Amino acid sequence: CLTTGTSLSVALPAMSRKRGMFADSNQDPSVKALQMSCSEYFAAFHACDPHRTGFIDLQHLSDALQAVLSAAEVRAVNRDVSMRPFHSTTCCLLCTRFGDGAKLSPVQFCELLYYVHNLRVIFAHLDTDCSGGIDCGKLMTAFQHSGANMDASVVAQIVASYDTDHSMALEFDEFVQMRLEWDHYISAWDLCTRGSPTIPPPQLWSVLEEVKRTTEPIITALGALGLTLRYIFHAHRPFQVQTCECLIFRFGRGSACLSFEQFCSMMVSLKEMKEAFCGADLGRIGSLNSAWLAKAMSRLGMDLPEQLVEDIGRQFYAHSAEGVEFDEFVQIIVEWNEVWRERHRFGKGATGRIGSVHLREILGSVRVIYRFVNSMVQAARPFNISTCRWLIATFGTCQAGEAFAQGVTWAEFLNLVWFLKHTHRKFHEFNLTHSGALSADELGSAMATHGIHLSSEAIDNIRRSYDVDGSGTFEFDEFLQIVLECQMYDQRFEMRVAYPTLLTATSMCPTENGVGGSSHGCRAGGNGGGVVALDKSAFFSLVFSVPRHVGRERHVAS
Q: What distance in Å separates the CA atoms of residue 115 and residue 118, rounded to the nearest whole number?
């Protein structure tokens, strides 16, 4: 009954991705009826059911598969062909797909063999040199014929993830495992896209949840047998839409949607992330603490400072008291992967430092901010050079002969990026209209979250000082520069409050609380000697009384 001459062409729904090596068995009723009534199938079934229970269990499934497929190979090539026994994991996957996870009825066994026969035909077509394995080159060609032009590096990842014997090629047993897993991905794509060539974040969420729904029974069955297969979507709760947005930013190359090829690349990376996550989850609790998070990131090639990893994880602990779950881990890896790839700019061993020009280039190429509004990518204008200089002055370290830092090291750059991400979260939180720019009222609230509490008059002076174009609003890079400058002045002010001997004639007026009470300042008598003193809001009102572009024009002119 089993031959190698079956055509790969089957009737497909419009725009279905079940083509090429992902093609289903021929569903023509007459062809399927002939295969399902094959005497060889039933003979193999009864040979592996010596006690006539009416079922084949996992223990005998591998023997039955090997016997039927080997016989088919002998007929096809007219010589004895030895096949490696099917792995227990493969048998469990097949048994779960076609049976109840532990046993198969005669009809279920025939359906299973019909499926495996189809895969054997596909495998024979791909194995052009009859080596018994599909290497990276063959698999790349197979993806192309299946409508997905995959990068060589992605194809190599796929081979490595299923190549259990490290032969650098997929043997038939390993190919079956790959196909069984990818069937879930492609069926979910077809179901949720309904013929569309791309998917936006909400649809991607539906695809991921559908894959999760269909793979949960498999994970349960494997666990009952003491086997593990790290399917991607075994999670305690649904994926967040924000995770889907991050994934589209990462793999969509600036688009608000994913193509099928990009979706395939994304699934490969997700599986790699899952391997790293499970390998670091020493407690098998489905979440990572700071130490385990650092190990998981290291498994993916990112060795970040311990304190930074702790800060990164802390932003997610509010969702889970036990730590970072896989959904959140994906967000972390997607965001920090692009940052990590800029490490080469700091020289060999990342021992050098970069200045404001190179920082501006990096911030223009690394998508530090991941935000969708109404399923649309929010355009971000490039950081201006002045903002980059403020960032370097804040996070860099002065070297000999420098009045302020002229560059940042790799470690300082990582802290700088963390500050950007943290600040943007606050920016987005207070941008109630989701316009991508803060109003004057929103500016004051956002400033307060950074520990800078000022009067409305001071905030208004800051607004006028920076609002060069008269728009009355502030985009992120403008807000960032305001925060950096105000934090510097706030630190200087608090230092003089703490150390009054350092006060100058324009410092502050002593009162019962140690701080002047009037927003306009006061004239101190007695100990003050008639010197004008300012409280913090009045001090900021004075500092920002001059528009910022005036200072820039004088600097350029000089």
A: 5
Positions in the chain whose pLDDT score sits under 50: 1-13, 74-81, 230-233, 235, 505-531, 550-558
pLDDT digits (tens, 9 = 90+) for 281-296: 888 888 899 999 999 9
Question: What does the alpha-carbon distance between residue 342 and residue 43 come to, in Å, rounded to a whole number?
Answer: 61
Count the Cβ atoms, other than its own, within 10 Å of residue 131: 11
Residue 23 dihedral angles phi and psi, to the nearest 5°: -65, 145
Q: Are 547 and 465 in contact (CB under 8 A)?
A: yes
- Residues contacting 401, CB < 8 A, separation 6+: none
Nearest to 430 by CA among 412, 449, 451: 449
Residue holding tokens 């079922």? Answer: 55
Residue whose tokens read 């793999």: 251
What is the DSSP-derived secondary structure letter of residue 555? H
Q: Which H, E and C letters describe 107-133, residue by residue?
A: HHHHHHHHHHHHHHHHHHHHCCCCCCC
- C-alpha 423/C-alpha 406 separation (Å) is 22
Helices 241-251 and 326-340, axial angle in degrees (round to 10): 30
Long-range contacts of 446-455 (CB under 8 A, 24+ apart): 446/479, 447/482, 447/483, 447/486, 450/423, 450/426, 450/483, 450/486, 450/487, 451/487, 451/490, 452/483, 452/486, 452/487, 452/490, 454/536, 454/537, 454/540, 455/519, 455/537, 455/541
* Tens digits of residue pLDDT in 83-141: 677 888 888 888 888 887 678 888 888 888 888 888 988 999 999 998 989 999 999 99
Q: Which residues does residue 522 pair with via DSSP β-bridges, in sequence order?
A: 533
500-542 residue pLDDT tens = 766 554 444 443 333 333 344 444 444 444 445 678 888 888 8
